Fold this protein.
Amino acid sequence: MNILMVCLGNICRSPLAEGILADKAAKAGFNWLIDSAGTSGYHIGEPPHVLSRQTAASHGIDISHQRGRQFTKEDMQRFNRIFVMDEENFWEVRRMAGSEWDETKVSLILELLYPGEKREVPDPWYGTQKDFQFVYDLLDKACDALINSFAAENT
Ligand code: 4NP
């Protein structure tokens, strides 16, 4: 399985999602390729936000090696599933994918927890440590659901 996490900056939310899922997949013994990208090019080459790094580290997950990159339409083919954090990310991925767009691969990550509710992971960019922890907790539960549904499908 190749899974891509997408947000706007690839600096706050999707790096956390990538780190959390990579940790859970490794612990579950799944040899998955997990990556993240931003719809914007604002933070290309930058490490994750210091509060994303600190929040992940407080849960034993090191995301400091990650570097920001922008989503490309080739990602649509390289990945089996693409999880976006909010509706704006969804429409941007759709626009940027152009002719490569595949609706069956892309969904809001919180649909894993709340199907049909179109809930979003809030952008913590102007927030505090508490906001990053809130994002972490949402992503942690969503990634648990992803691991569990995959395990159930493959037993
Ligand atoms: P992210 O958060 O999409 O979770 O990485 C943001 C990061 C940067 C900006 C906005 C959101 N920005 O405007 O630079």
